[in-house]
Backbone:
């Protein structure tokens, strides 16, 4: 198989279908590795990776760190809250200082859309985007595709609805691009104020009625309301949002068909999804987290393969 | 490329059988021994040897398949990524006598990776190596096989291909030599 067509993983937008298939296939092997008694391989023992998180994260940061350690890479972590960024240092200065310590790869989460692309043009290291503002979150989309494939056998031909705060969600954009490249049909569902105005240009269906959306789909990806990114009120109250767009057992049982429930986390239980649905056998939320490590190992491994000795 | 058949179908069978009898001499009823074939091509040697051994001894032989992609020493030195194969080891390695099996032993680097990959599953009592074809005089590492089907002397520019009935249609070993310009 061919190598990745890109030198950095800044977004799904730049990946070809072949790239995505290569990542998913490699991730399958890594999933085997992380289920062995010794969950570690020596591939990246001469690679150093810096994890730069300018925005809060639990799952993604731990998942990346674990993936890197299971590949035997050396890892340094950086959180903006207790760094020189607070003293006025620019992004490029911060990163170049870190690179002077012989770092080969940077995993970055940043509140500004485009930060990863910007960095990849300015510094000499492989960049992996771990979320840039409301723009993209490529590894989340890849692990979602991996999880759908694992549960349903394939992504092509499947109908996936993404429900919730599409406007502020990087998970939504990366998922739309990734699922479409793999041949799935995508719908977005949520209150009109939280759906970007021209999103149909991406070739997705738009639906404002959750019940109708669920009747249509094979997979429902429930997103969190990103209150921290909302500068104005987009809906009257969380309680009203929950009544209109929250997924509960009653609604799920009334569908008369099996659908797969996903959530990128963190869950706001009782808002977009109730506890009994999140913990039901329809939900693959914890599989997504497990697969996240395997998919991030695959992305890291394949990009590191392009750092020539 | 000039083609030369080194083992034909009949010699191929005899060679496999001989390796099996040598294994039986050292491992008796295989109660403490497991066979591990290296992906991608060693698993064909493994499946043949396993079925011959089972036929001769009447015992069930424990065997598994090992992929060594993530243990290779040429990562970041290749143009194209290697696509990993399946690892299938559903038994305990700890304390077992392991026989690693591959089709061609050449530089020894694959075997080095294989030993590394194997150790990730536990601490075997001992590890032996069975190679169907041993290409001598181009070893990069101090690794030798305990059981050899056929030893051959080759130039580095030559290529040895072990072909299987189930894949290529016929059991045989072929030596390819580049045409000389003289």
Residues:
């Amino acid at each position: 198989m061919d190598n990745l067509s890109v030198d950095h993983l800044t977004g799904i937008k730049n990946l070809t279908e072949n790239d995505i298939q290569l990542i998913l296939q490699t991730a399958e092997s890594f999933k085997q590795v992380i289920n062995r008694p010794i969950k570690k391989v020596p591939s990246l023992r001469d690679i150093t990776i810096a994890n730069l998180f300018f925005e809060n994260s639990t799952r993604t940061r731990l998942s990346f760190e674990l993936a890197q350690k299971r590949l035997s890479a050396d890892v340094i972590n950086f959180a903006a809250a207790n760094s020189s960024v607070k003293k006025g240092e620019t992004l490029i200065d911060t990163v170049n200082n870190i690179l002077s310590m012989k770092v080969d790869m940077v995993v970055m989460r940043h509140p500004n859309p485009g930060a990863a692309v910007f960095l990849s043009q300015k510094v000499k290291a492989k960049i992996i985007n771990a979320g840039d503002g409301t723009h993209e979150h490529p590894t989340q989309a890849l692990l979602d595709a991996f999880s759908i494939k694992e549960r349903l056998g394939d992504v092509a031909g499947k109908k996936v609805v993404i429900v919730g705060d599409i406007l502020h969600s990087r998970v939504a954009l990366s998922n739309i691009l990734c699922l479409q490249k793999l041949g799935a049909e995508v719908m977005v569902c949520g209150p009109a104020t939280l759906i970007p105005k021209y999103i149909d240009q991406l070739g997705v269906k738009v639906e404002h009625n959750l019940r109708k959306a669920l009747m249509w789909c094979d997979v429902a990806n429930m997103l969190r309301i990103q209150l921290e990114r909302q500068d104005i009120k987009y809906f009257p109250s969380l309680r009203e949002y929950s009544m209109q767009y929250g997924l509960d057992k009653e609604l799920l049982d009334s569908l008369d068909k099996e659908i797969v429930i996903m959530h990128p986390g963190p869950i706001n239980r009782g808002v977009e999804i109730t506890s009994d649905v999140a913990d039901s056998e329809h939900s693959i939320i914890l599989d997504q987290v497990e697969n996240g490590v395997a998919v991030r190992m695959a992305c890291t491994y394949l990009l590191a393969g392009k750092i020539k000795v | 490329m000039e083609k030369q058949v080194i083992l034909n179908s009949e010699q191929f069978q005899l060679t496999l059988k001989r390796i099996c009898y040598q294994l039986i001499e050292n491992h008796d009823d295989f109660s403490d021994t497991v066979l591990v074939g290296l992906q991608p091509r060693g698993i064909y040697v493994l499946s043949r040897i396993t079925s011959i051994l089972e036929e001769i001894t009447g015992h069930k032989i424990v065997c598994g398949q090992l992929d060594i992609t993530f243990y290779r020493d040429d990562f970041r030195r290749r143009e194209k990524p290697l696509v990993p194969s399946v690892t299938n080891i559903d038994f305990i390695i700890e304390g077992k006598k392991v026989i690693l099996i591959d089709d061609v032993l050449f530089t020894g680097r694959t075997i080095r990776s294989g030993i590394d990959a194997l150790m990730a599953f536990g601490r075997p009592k001992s590890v032996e190596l069975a190679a169907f074809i041993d290409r001598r005089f181009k070893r990069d590492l101090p690794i030798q096989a305990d059981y050899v089907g056929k030893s051959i002397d080759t130039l580095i520019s030559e290529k040895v291909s072990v072909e299987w009935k189930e894949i290529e249609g016929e059991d045989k070993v072929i030596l390819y030599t580049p045409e000389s310009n003289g």
About this structure: Chain B touches chain A through 19 residues (CB under 8 Å).
